[in-house]
Amino acid sequence: MPANKSGPVPRKKKGRRGRLVAITVVLLLVAGIGFGAFWGVSTVRASFPQTTGSLKLPGLTNPVDVVRDGNGIPQIYADTDEDLFRAQGYVQAQDRFWEMDVRRHMTSGRLSEMFGKSEVKTDSFLRTLGWHDVAQKEYDTKLSPSTKKYLQSYSAGVNAYLKDHEGSAVSLEYAALDFHNDYKPQKWTPVDSVAWLKAMAWDLRGNMQEEIDRSLMTSRFTPEQISRLYPAYPYKRNKPIVEGGAVDPATKKFSPKASANATPATAAGATAGLQSQLSSLSKTLGKVPALLGPNGNGIGSNSWVVSGAHTTTGKPLLANDPHLAPQMPSLWYQMGLHCRNTGPKCNYDVSGFTFSGMPGVVIGHNQDISWGMTNLGADVTDLYLEKVNADGYLFDNKQQPFITRKETIKVADGESREITVRSTRNGPIVSDRDGELANVGKDAPVGTTAPDRGDGYAVSLRWTALDPGKSMDAVFELNRAKDWTGFRKAAAHFEVPSQNLIYADTKGNIGYQAPGRIPVRGKGDGHYDGTLPAPGWDPKYQWTGYIPQKALPYEYNPQRGFIVTANQAVTDEKYPYLLTKDWGYGSRSQRINDLIESKIKDGGKVSTDDMQAFQKDNSSEIARLLTPYLTKIDIKDKYVRDAQQLLEGWDFTQEPDSAAAAYFNAVWRNTLKLAFGNKMPKELRPEGQCLTVRPANETGPADENDKYLRECGERAGDTAQPDGGDRWYEVVRGILDDPNNAWWKTEDRPGRPGDKNRDQLLAHAMADARYELTSKLGKNIDTWSWGRLHQMYLKNQTLGTDGPGMLQGLFNRGPWNVGGGEAAVDATGWNAASGYKVTWVPSMRMVVNLADLDKSRWINLTGASGHAYDAHYYDQTDKWAKGDLLPWAYSQTAVKKAAKDTLTLSP
Fold this sequence. Notes:
This protein has about 900 residues and is an alpha+beta fold. It has 25 helices and 34 strands. Helix content is about 30%, strand content about 20%.
């Protein structure tokens, strides 16, 4: 099973081995092998979209034109809003319906209907969360009439496409699926679109994984050691997004120009002693398909905006590149939505990156403004330990009844399953979804306030996304906003997921707004901050409300003339509300700040080319920090010394052909493994990594009487620890000038004494890295390159991730040898605990030129099409890998000039 699980994976069943063979045979024919070549080619091409001529689309009031450029990117022209979104639904279904269909089954907990009983456990967990139910409530009670109207029009467009297409005519994957079961796609509904925002919110849910990890670490580390592994944000070195400003204590309103005198949110105290056996819950969470990528430090993005005072155009330039899992097709779908004449009946003239299955544009620009997004990382989830019995749970010394509901899970080729979902006042009990989870919290000491734990605690989840909101309204409001005021109004409705929103307009203004529904927590024993599971029975740990929208930080035309967001801290320590304790640590953001400042000093100007070059910056901060220590170590072994010399004179860039980058990153990986990874509990180490260790919770120095045991890692590779991200930069920075720090020491082993100090451990890591790369890249260091080690694969997230290799090969593409790296601006992330494989990437890149929108640039990771063997399946990937961007035509004149195909949709 691949480590990157960024989508639903239909797992193999023993009884279906023959069917998988049948699929392979059919798809060999599809590929044109043997006498079935003609039939195979026709099957492949059956789903390719019609892009020229005319088609009937019932429900339109007037004809709609779909103009595609040489990359198959559609620009839609209509006379009414309803026609525009109806056509958007039709066109996205043409290119991406398989992706849309799988996604809606995931968000509604119905994967078993497509892929059988292997997905029942995943569906059970997703039904427990109840994304689709919440989306239904949003649609019924929260969304504006216009939003509902757009969602209905979009759904009608999708369903018009489905009415005339079935099986392989929809997508090649359905030709394969026909051999599994009698599955047929159901009609699309507006709630299917709304539910997608829940999946997005889940993948960007903040520090839930860190909350679990800190709890799991308590089996091997003291609270003080855990604290060292989660150091404070380095405010003095890495600037927050908003530099200055304060909340007025009386009005609760944030002002960028006010002075901060408020007391900052305090750190954890009462919950520091919690220890919960959450390994099973962690495994369950890991099985939930992550559409965006592995949750944690890597799920981020870069965005920045430079005012016209510092650009060659005289108007702002805005850049954005979200970091998501590499997958086939890319999560993004480029598109333009244009009213031929904007007015009361038709309000939109917007272009940018959309999500297949959801109307509107998520990131992009209209005729007046542009906007970008990065993950704010707000802490919007809390795990609560619950004291339960058969009848209910304890709260405030009283027994409370569960809130329950029944869910029926239909299973392809099998009997339906029924589950009971139990919830407390804190949310659904997520520990019910796995038999192993009955004892979650069994050994969790929480002090004298704990009730009799009996058979252990259950675990419930409090999460802002489980309350209905208006985020779908915000998408359309952003699309039609004309100025800063309209932008901020839209941002106020973008409740989940909480994103950093940057802004620029054609009049020359730039800005930033932190939106989101972010909880205010009770103080617990005085210091509760959501970094560890809390006692659900104690009212002092409940949420007391949400940060007022007017108190959320923003900036508008700051004096410095630019704004950078890259998942760093939003504000300084004096901000009175707790946003999170688990920021990214600012490595990427500060590098972007430095690049911009170096360009504009002494009156220099930033060009569009500069913005594009900044996106490809691959400098390694940890290499800059650690390499001087590595090159000073006296290495006696010439074999290792030859590799060490690669680092002498290296400029710390991570180009694909760099041998020095390959060796340094191997040294970094082995340093982390020796100093931290081998000391981690099994729940955090990578699957398959087995070590001989002392039993958990043993203290004191080892002696000859110690009994060791063989213990294997349990964590999926892309979320194992230490992952090597910029949190670990800060951990190592904190001990680098303390050569005798305990973290540098390793245990003695028979025949090999342990490392006693920093230099011994670094020498050990350099030797291990030399031998590791010899096995992976060969003995001759002259042939080494970072790209050969650091490869990106694009995988179809269903049939391309499981089953016979030939089946995967038909849908997957790659590898590409890429540069960049973990916490670089060119963030081709990899997990140091498990290997060098690329686990997340800049999933798209854009640079918007507010002086002339037709001179903006964009690129997608793959292409417009979701159909294997279509010309636009991955036609942008080679350019993406080189850092190239495509011209982004916006005006009708520019679109017409770039046009290759035009399709007219008629009533």
